[in-house]
Automatic annotation (TrEMBL):
Coiled coil (residue ranges): none
Domain Peptidase S9 prolyl oligopeptidase catalytic per the UniProt entry, residue ranges: 476-692
Single GO molecular function: serine-type endopeptidase activity
The keyword Chloroplast is assigned to this record: no
Protein name listed in UniProt: S9 family peptidase
Recorded family membership: Belongs to the peptidase S9A family.
Alphabetical keyword list: Hydrolase, Protease, Serine protease
Domain Peptidase S9A N-terminal: 6-415
Gene3D superfamilies, sorted: alpha/beta hydrolase, Prolyl oligopeptidase, N-terminal domain
Length: 695
């Protein structure tokens, strides 16, 4: 242990002055000047930077060497809980039913179809074969044409999320010459099955254009349909459930604007629904006839409402409430089928699905009795259908896929997630507890532990948190976490402010000026779990990724002695420098979420007050394990690299700070369903090692 020395990065101070404040960054040199080129070709990384990252990986290998057998055991356990020859429930569309299927041993899926009522299976795409020999491969998306003759699909083979779209002739079982680089990966087919719409990604990794491609024509002739002029807005393309309209959506984190194109007239100009208005969000579906339905937070509907308007004049002046705003009932999504509306909403922290008859307004809900669970709509290719598909799970209950007859109310269980190595739900306990925050709020915490785990403070705890963008962390089934729970860990999810578990207000209460509430809530949840005997202070492993990784950096600064260890995946820890750099992929679109420190002194001071990198100090820090990806366009590799370098220079303890950077992957880590397990095993082995549970 004493012979292993972590790499210490050289200090090369760079001073910038912002709002009269000198910012000194000793490790800015780790940011490659040609980072945009590196996203496309990792071999172009500066050799000096690569040498430092290689040294980080070498130290990780050395520190974790005594856990190699444990890692293998963890991978074997987690793989043993995966049904290797798994397949999705076929989803019908016209004459066919489409599905994905994994073969035993395959890392990536096959896309297949059969005739609607069954018959021989037709192979459409073999992603595992396409990935062969590549260090990274991700199938971005796949969409069949309305006439079922073509399949547009996209791939990313660097992890940088620059997707190449290709088109396969399904009759000939061969790709056409059409190949479109630098896209977001998704397509929306026109009704003619001869053209489709897609989103272009520019050099700064922003979606700025929607284009239309005609099959058989050069990409250079693709028609620009829409250009988003505001660098702070993303744009994307989709279709309404009816298939009648192409939807062009422009949005940031608080404002949206939608345009429609008649799918039967793909060369027509986009038609604006209603102009963007700051902090007003909306999304749209049509009823297949003469009206559109809109999910929106307009008119102060904080938890959203649903309105409709005439298709001929869908502007905001004509919006009429259909499902009125009800505080505390957060409407998450909405779909329109022939004669019916289906919405997913959350009430009292738990999700439910509501079916509404459009003609009568009659509603009924689908819900479940467990204390904590996850519920999600699975989508449908068809509009004129009585069946909606949803997935249900809880921390103790494997995922179940149901088809629900909206006419009769009957549920048909189509699939239950299999755990080949065995799973007995009664061996585990799921609970939802409420942790008191300092300001009087109550923070929901979902718990999972074995029924025989002692609740006397002796158990270690893995406490997970995210708390950003209004994203709720579902109380769903995870085969991976069982490897810790079966070794005596209590697993906890802190549903902290910044998510939307308690309605939209819960998100706003952890956003921008209120961001410190996110960190305080996580610390409050940890202290509550210790006080109640679920664990004890110093035996809590804090875990978060991306924006949740920023949470990890903040709570490590604020309460270092509370944590037995910190696991931070692709952590957004260099917040101030990133938000000051408008050339980075997500910076302008992220200003509404975090604040704009370029223009606002108040935003600058706020972010500077909590940004993990700037707030590192001379103190003891807990053991830390950090995962990063070289081609990550969301949280660039240099953020965690700089953070760990500065932390090592300041800390006063002998605890290990270990970083593993995947040199062949981006934000999502390793590709392939089994390779992913290796990175999870690294994290878990570190947690088990430092908590004395590695045997």
């Amino acid at each position: 242990m004493t012979e292993m020395k972590p790499p210490f990065a050289e200090k090369r101070p760079v001073v910038t002055t912002v709002h009269g404040v000198d910012l000194v960054d000793d490790y800015a040199w780790l940011r490659a000047d040609n980072w945009q080129d590196v996203l496309r070709d990792p071999d172009l990384l500066d050799p000096g930077i690569r040498a430092h990252l290689d040294a980080e990986n070498a130290f990780c290998d050395a520190y974790m060497a005594d856990t190699v057998d444990l890692q293998k055991a963890l991978v074997a356990e987690m793989r043993g809980r995966i049904q290797e020859d798994d397949s999705s429930v076929p989803l019908p569309d016209g004459p066919y039913a489409y599905a994905s299927r994994y073969l035993t041993g395959a890392q990536h899926p096959r896309l297949v179809r059969t005739l609607r009522d069954g018959g021989p299976e037709e192979l459409l795409l073999d992603a595992d074969e396409m990935a062969r020999g590549k260090p990274y491969f991700s199938l971005g998306g796949a969409s069949h044409s309305p006439d079922h003759k073509l399949l547009a699909y996209s791939v990313d083979d660097t992890g940088s999320e620059f997707h190449v779209i290709r088109v396969r002739d399904l009759d000939a079982d061969a790709d056409l010459p059409d190949e479109i680089p630098n896209t977001a990966g998704g397509v929306a087919w026109a009704a003619d099955s001869r053209s489709f719409f897609y989103t272009y990604v520019n050099d700064n990794h922003r979606t700025e254009k929607v284009l239309r491609h005609v099959i058989g024509t050069p990409t250079s002739e693709d028609i620009v349909v829409y250009v988003e002029e505001d660098s702070g807005f993303f744009c994307g393309v989709d279709k309404t459930q009816s298939g009648r309209f192409i939807v062009i959506d422009s949005h940031d984190h608080q404002t949206s604007e939608v345009r429609l194109i008649d799918a039967a007239a793909p060369d027509s100009s986009p038609r604006l629904v209603t102009a963007r208005e700051t902090e007003v969000e909306y999304s749209i579906e049509d009823d297949g006839d003469d009206r559109v339905y809109i999910l929106t937070n307009a008119d102060g509907a904080e938890d959203f409402k649903i309105v409709n308007a005439p298709l001929k004049n869908p502007g905001r002046d004509n919006w009429v409430d259909v499902v009125a705003h009800e505080p505390g009932r957060l409407i998450l999504s909405m779909s329109i089928f022939q004669g019916r509306m289906v919405r997913l909403e959350r009430v009292g922290g738990l999700p439910r699905i509501v079916i509404r008859e459009l003609s009568s307004g009659h509603e009924h809900a689908i819900s479940f009795p467990e204390e904590a669970y996850s519920l999600g709509l699975s989508g449908s290719y068809e509009f004129d259908t009585n069946v909606v598909r949803f997935t249900y799970s809880s921390p103790t209950t494997p995922a179940q896929v149901y088809d629900y007859d909206m006419s009769t109310g009957e549920r048909f269980l189509r699939k239950t997630q299999e755990v080949p190595s065995g799973h007995e739900p009664t061996n585990y306990v799921t609970r939802r507890v409420m942790a008191p925050a300092a300001d009087g709020e109550s923070v929901p915490v979902t718990l999972l532990y074995r029924a025989d785990t002692p609740l006397d403070g002796s158990a270690p705890c893995l406490l997970y948190g995210y708390g950003a963008y209004g994203i709720a962390i579902p109380a769903s089934f995870s085969t991976r976490i069982l490897s810790l729970v079966d070794r005596g860990f209590v697993y906890a999810i802190a549903h902290i402010r910044g998510g939307n578990e308690k309605g939209h207000r819960w998100y706003l209460a952890g956003k921008r000026d209120n961001k410190p509430n996110t960190f305080k809530d996580f610390i409050a949840a940890a202290r509550y779990l210790a006080a109640e005997g679920f664990t004890s202070e110093g035996r809590i492993v804090a875990h978060g990724g991306s924006a949740g990784g920023m949470l990890m950096g903040a709570v490590a600064n604020l309460a270092p002695s509370l944590w037995g260890a910190v696991l931070a995946a692709v952590p957004f820890v260099d917040v101030l420098n990133t938000m000051l750099d408008d050339t980075l992929p997500l910076t302008p679109p992220e200003w509404p979420e975090w604040g704009n420190p370029v223009e606002s002194i108040a935003d600058f001071q706020l972010i500077a007050s909590y940004s993990p990198y700037e707030n590192l100090m001379t103190q003891a820090y807990p053991p830390m394990f950090v995962l990063a990806g070289l081609t990550d366009p969301r949280v660039t590799y240099w953020e965690p690299a700089k953070w760990i370098a500065r932390l090592r220079a300041l800390k006063t303890d002998d605890n290990p700070q270990v970083m593993h950077i995947n040199m062949d992957a981006g934000h999502g880590g390793a590709s392939g369903r089994f390779d992913e397990l290796k990175e999870t095993a690294l994290e878990y082995a570190f947690a088990l090692k430092v908590m004395g549970r590695a045997k």
